[in-house]
UniProtKB/TrEMBL annotation:
Provenance organism: Paenibacillus artemisiicola
NCBIfam families given in the database record: SUF_scaf_2 (TIGR01994)
Domain NIF system FeS cluster assembly NifU N-terminal, first and last residues per copy: 7-124
Protein name as it appears in the record: SUF system NifU family Fe-S cluster assembly protein
InterPro entries: NIF_FeS_clus_asmbl_NifU_N
Length: 141
């Protein structure tokens, strides 16, 4: 099987069977973000206790890249401290720009590597990660 084919399967799996899709209690940290170029939107909810991201869930509508990336992101941050979650967002930013090739914390994320060649799609892949960053930075204030 071609690598691209394998990557496409991983992305479509997260798109069709999203992990952590849904809502948390109303008092959870809630971030709404959209991609103005296409109208795709995400609502991310985080439950942070003792500085640990206990739960992360999302709803929204968008392309396969934005929604699969959100699914992967919520998987990757669960159980992390807020500092670790911010560091992961930073790492994803380097990864999606093609500066690093591996993502050991969640290998599924490596399936998004093809996106680095398409600047417009980078915005799709980073939508949920930007929501994460915004939520945690807001929480830390
Ligand atoms: Fe809008 Fe991908 S098409 S986020
Ligand atoms: Fe449409 Fe992402 S902005 S593909």
């Amino acid at each position: 099987m071609e690598l691209d084919d394998l990557y496409r399967r991983v992305i479509m799996d997260h798109y069709k069977n999203p992990r952590n899709r849904g809502s948390l209690d109303d008092d959870s940290l809630t971030i709404n973000l959209n991609n103005p170029t296409c109208g795709d939107r995400i609502t991310l909810q985080l439950q942070v206790e003792d500085d640990i991201v206990k739960q992360a869930k999302f709803t929204g509508e968008g392309c396969s890249i934005s929604m699969s990336s959100a699914s992967m992101m919520t998987e990757a941050v669960k159980g992390k401290t807020t500092e670790e979650a911010l560091a992961l967002a930073e790492k994803f930013s380097s990864f999606i720009k093609g500066e690093i090739a591996e993502f050991d914390e969640l290998e599924d994320i490596e399936a998004l590597s093809g996106v680095t060649k398409f600047p417009a799609r980078i915005k799709c892949a980073t939508l949920s990660w930007n929501a994460l960053r915004k939520g945690i930075e807001h929480q830390q204030q």
